[in-house]
Amino acid sequence: MRNVSTKDGKTDQSVANRAKKRLLKKEEVTEVRGANSKKDLVLAVQVEHMDRFRLKDIEKKSKEMLKKEFPGYSIEISTDQKIFWELDKLEKQLQHKNVSSKKLNKKLNKIKQLMKEKP
User: How is the chain split into domains, by residue range?
Assistant: First the structure.
C-alpha cells in the first residue's frame, strides 16, 4: 500500500490512506488502490481468487463500512481490474507529486465515469 499526497498540499490523501488500511484488514482483500478529493473517495480492491464469486457483496459491505467511517465523502468502490490500474497510475503520479488538486478532481471524475460503464 502506498501513502500518497499531492503537490499543492490542498488535497490531503490521509483519508484514502486510512480507507486503504481498513480495507486491507478484510480477509478477502489482497490489494487496494485509491485517492480522495475534498468530497470524493474512490477505491479499487483486488480479492482472493476464491472470493471472486462474491465481488458485488464485497463491494457493498466495504462501501457500507467506509460510509460509516467517512460520512462526509461520496464513496465509490470497485473490484474491476481496469479501475484498479487507473487508480494505481494516479497513486504513482500523486507519489511523484505530479498532480494538482484540479487535475486530481478531473482524474477522479474520469475514473468514476469508467466505473459507471457496464462491461
Answer: 14-112
pLDDT digit string, tens, across residues 17-39: 999 999 999 999 999 999 999 99
Task: Give tens-digit pLDDT for 62-100.
Answer: 999 999 999 999 999 999 999 999 999 999 998 888 788
Beta-carbon contacts of residue 101 (< 8 Å; ≥ 6 apart): 6, 8, 10, 11, 37
Amino acid at position 8, single letter: D
Which whole-number Å values give the CA distances from 50 to 30, 47, 108, in the listed order? 12, 8, 30
* Rg of the chain, C-alpha, whole Å: 13
Assign a CATH topology to domain 14-112.
Alpha-Beta Plaits (3.30.70)
Listed in sequence order, the residues at least 6 apart from 63 whose beta carbon sits closer than 8 Å to its beta carbon are 75, 76, 77
Residue 17 carries which DSSP code? H
